[in-house]
Amino acid sequence: MLDEVSYTDVYDLGNKLGYLPYMIQRFVELIGEKETIELLKFNEKKLKTVIRLNNLKAQFSEIEFLLLQKKIVFKRIREIPEAREIVHSPISIGATIEYLNGYYMVQGKNSMFPPLILDPKPHEIIGDFAAAPGGKTTHIAQLMKNKGKIISIERSKRRCTALYSNIIRMGVQNTIVINTDARDIVKSKIKFDKILLDAPCSGSGVIINDPSRKTSKKEEDLARYSKLQTELLDTAIQTLKEGGTIVYCTCSLEPEENELVIDRVLKDNDIKLVDILFSFERGVTKFANYSFSPELKKAVRLYPHKTNGEGFFIAKMVKESG
Amino acid sequence: MVKTETLFIKASREEEQIVVSFLLKEFGTKVMEIMNDKSIFIKQRGVKEVYIVNEELKDTIEFIRNSSLDLTKNIFLAGYPIGTIHEKQFQLEVTGGFYFKKYMEKRIIVKTQQFLYGKDIVVANVKEYTLPFKKGNWLAVYGKGKKDSELFYGVGKALVGSNELSSAPPNTVIIKGYKNRPFDLGWYLRFEK
Question: How far apart are CA B30 and CA A22, in angstroms?
Answer without folding.
Answer: 65
